[in-house]
TrEMBL record:
GO molecular function, one term: N-carbamoylputrescine amidase activity
Stored Gene3D superfamilies: Carbon-nitrogen hydrolase (3.60.110.10)
Residue ranges occupied by any CN hydrolase domain in the UniProt entry: 9-254
GO biological process: putrescine biosynthetic process from arginine
CDD domains tied to this protein: nitrilase_2
Species the sequence originates in: Marinibacterium profundimaris
Protein name: Hydratase
Length: 279
């Protein structure tokens, strides 16, 4: 059944543990989780960053071996076929090759096939050794579910990411991510990533769905704690725990964003900006 534009639907943030270099195994795990979420009525699935390849690259030859075109690569084609079969929309982080360049990318597909891609703008740590910075800007895609934007991991540390997407009319931002421990994080404190994305959702009036990975890969631990945030900045599901695979599910309603942005009788967090003084 085709959703009515602007109506409520379920979104899932799929937290799982990819295995480095095991593309077929990772795609099979992604499929199993997507099918499980679909059985619970989910229409939009969000998977982690570099979900098909794993994250901790050591050589450029590994990147070349594990990358594919977007669209047209094996991982994109697999997910697009699955979306068509199930009648769902999928956002996943993937390792992309385009000409002589490699990108830490994400793609969006739906029941009618590939919709669009995104390339990570802000590269983290050793990613700078293997990937080119994103060159597609911050696109927003019209879908029957609503207006969808994408960001990847460290992009979420920059307020401009979500402000730009909100200005372009995004209603939900899907964030494939591989969050790692932050330096000097106090024991027991909420993950900085969670704080940043809740603040971004509130200050822009956006739904934000963050799908992190778990496990340790080549000595690098990942922190889990995926979450789905409403446009008021409060979590709708999650944070998940730090170590377990889990499917977070929440109902989102893009038609309610305008009302959520009105945080008092006289204030709207999107309309109140003083563009005349911001440089």
């Amino acid at each position: 059944m085709t959703p009515v534009p602007g109506s409520a639907f379920k979104v899932a943030a799929i937290q799982f543990e990819p295995e480095f270099g095991a593309v077929d195994r990772n795609l099979a795990a992604m499929e199993a989780h997507i099918r499980a979420a679909h059985a619970q009525g989910v229409r939009l699935m969000v998977l982690p960053e570099l979900a098909d390849s794993g994250y901790v690259f050591e050589t450029q030859s590994e990147v070349a071996r594990l990358s594919g075109p977007i669209p047209g690569g094996p991982s994109t084609d697999f997910l697009c076929s699955l979306a068509a079969e199930l009648g769902v929309w999928i956002v996943s982080g993937l390792c992309e090759v385009a000409g002589d360049a490699f990108y830490n990318s994400a793609m969006l597909c739906g029941p009618d096939g590939f919709i669009g891609g995104y390339r990570k703008l802000h590269l983290w740590n050793r990613e700078t050794l293997f990937f080119a910075p994103g060159d597609l800007g911050l696109p927003v895609f019209d879908t029957p579910l609503g207006r969808i934007g994408m960001a990847i991991c460290y992009d979420g540390w920059f307020p401009e990411t979500f402000r730009t997407l909100a200005d372009k009319g995004a209603q939900i931002v899907c964030v494939p991510t591989n969050w790692v421990p932050m330096p000097d994080q106090p024991e027991g404190a909420e993950a900085m990533a969670n704080t940043l994305h809740k603040a971004a959702a509130h200050s822009n009036g956006l739904y934000i769905a963050c799908a992190d990975r778990v496990g340790t890969e080549r000595g690098q631990p990942f922190i889990g704690q995926s979450l789905i945030v409403g446009p008021n900045g409060f979590a709708l599901d999650g944070p998940a725990d730090k170590t377990s695979e889990r499917i977070l599910i929440a109902e989102v309603d893009p038609s309610g964003i305008a009302a959520a942005r009105k945080i008092s009788e006289y204030n709207d967090v999107h309309a109140d900006r003083r563009r005349d003084v911001y440089s």
